[in-house]
Amino acid sequence: MDDLTEMLKGTLEGCVLEIIGGEETYGYAITRRLNELGFADVVEGTVYTILLRLERNGLVQVTKRPSEVGPPRKFYALNDAGREQLATFWAKWQYVSSRIDRLKEGGR
Amino acid sequence: MDDLTEMLKGTLEGCVLEIIGGEETYGYAITRRLNELGFADVVEGTVYTILLRLERNGLVQVTKRPSEVGPPRKFYALNDAGREQLATFWAKWQYVSSRIDRLKEGGR
DNA sequence: TAGCGGTACCAAGTGGTACGAGGTACCAGG
DNA sequence: CCTGGTACCTCGTACCACTTGGTACCGCTA
To answer: Which ranges of the sequence are coiled-coil (chains A, B) (predicted)?
Structure first.
């Protein structure tokens, strides 16, 4: 599937939030996870900008831990604000996707 | 529902394409239609920029017709390239929305 | 021990898209 | 004549995913 980037705007951040909500994890692993999930073209640079934004907006708690196979990892976990933001994201997604699906099924 | 603008990026153009595909129509009416459909905050300026883009990209055929209740209207209809683009849009939407729904339903 | 591939992070700049604000103009009714 | 509805457009802004390029840690192997 080619070039989904425009369609991912506004949703990719929510996806990252959901992944972090599932378990405490770090940027490199999140990228791999997204690729697994079918977002094949999402690259590290993109994920890191999202993570920095989440941190800047106070939605995550960050913990640095050493790794045995490479440089130290920055683990991200949702805080209360993050969980709230995630709920809002899913509400918006539900709203938007249902309207679009309705439009697809012939309008009214 | 508040501020869906980021989530609409990349999908709004497809929605406009779908509306035009349903029947030949014009900018002002498309805006009203989107508002009806639940995209309440979409304003005329947004729709016009999309319509200009569609025209520039050669996806629509444009016909100007006088109106009895105001200034002349610019009617838009899909051409072959437009119909193809619309099909591509729905394929992408299907792809993206299914992956996101899967992520929502606990991952794998 | 030098180099390579995998792991892991970050920064600066680009391009596309929706939106805000404002302007023009046609028309009917009070 | 003036207001409100209809109908079009333009310019600037903000935001987001992406591109490109860089740093650095680690284990393996030639």
So the answer is: none
Q: Give chain B positions within 8 Å (CB) of A50.
A: none
Q: Quick one: fold of B10-104?
A: Arc Repressor Mutant, subunit A (1.10.10)
Say which residue the tokens 């444009």 belong to.
Answer: B62
Closest C-alpha among A25, A8, A7, A6 to residue A17 = A25
Q: CB–CB of A99 and B6 under 8 A?
A: no
pLDDT in tens, B24-51: 999 999 999 999 999 999 999 999 999 9
A18 at the B interface (CB within 8 A)? yes
Top CATH class, A5-103: mainly alpha
> What residues have CB less than 8 Å from A74, skipping those under 6 apart?
A26, A27, A51, A62, A63, A64
DSSP conformational letter for B59? -
Taking CB atoms and an 8 Å limit, are B9 and A10 in contact across chains?
Answer: yes
